[in-house]
Amino acid sequence: MTLNEARQILIASQPQRDDREDPLLQQALALVEKEPALGQWLERQRSFHDAASRSLRSIPVPVTLREQILASRKIVRPAQWWRHPLLWSAAALFLLFAGVNHWRSDAPPEDSLRTFRSRMVGAVLRQYTMDIVTNDMTQVRSFLATRNAPADYSLPDKLSRLPVSGAGVLSWQGQKVSMVCLDSAQHGTLFLFVVDRASLSEGPSAARDFQPVSKLATVSWTTGSQVYVLAGSGGREALEQYF
Predict the structure, then answer these.
(1) Which of 202 and 56 is assigned the larger pLDDT?
(2) What is the pLDDT of residues 5-53, one digit of tens each?
(3) pTM metric for this prediction
(4) Is 155 left (phi over 0), alpha (psi -120 to 50) or beta?
């Protein structure tokens, strides 16, 4: 055993405890007997330990020490699970996902009448061009038939009396849509859209379904295998007079 190993063993031993049965301690103590320098070092260590112990024991304990410790102690409460930032982030993502799904559920199907009306009105409000300009309804029907668009439409009596100014062909869900332009005396051009009923997932909810779309009023109805949408300015009252 070296001197350094002996010092480590002697420092680790407790002076008030009888560790003489420990073989390593016995070897270290035997080395103390042989090495005067090691014995002097051990004596100094014991003297320092005794002096430090006496100094600590001589320090008076304040009467209010317990109260001071309790007053300065920080009370750590367990984190409330509902305040955890990760939980709030997950909740926000869930609400966002639910909101998107809710918006999708409220959005009309692509082939609904509501979407059809919106698309047709949007087309004429942006810019519309008649493919044929004429005041002859027979020519209009003939032109639409050559374009594979609905040409056998049947109009209410009062609506059929309005003069025609032309027509055009639009597209919807791969189907042709006939756009017939009629001149009203008080409210300008009325746009009549005719499409095959099979191209829509749903027809009008009533015999005549009046709905405002953007800046125009519209009325929709079904006759036979075709759905009609009439759009124009002047509000619902301006359209009702033709039925």
Answers:
(1) 202
(2) 777 777 766 554 555 566 777 777 888 787 888 778 777 777 777 776 7
(3) 0.56
(4) beta
Give the integer Cα–Cα distance in Å for 59 and 178: 105
pLDDT at 45: 75
Q: Give the model's pLDDT for residue 216.
A: 95
Domain ranges of the chain: 3-58, 113-240
What span, in angstroms and rounded, lies between the C-alpha atoms of 3 and 86? 58
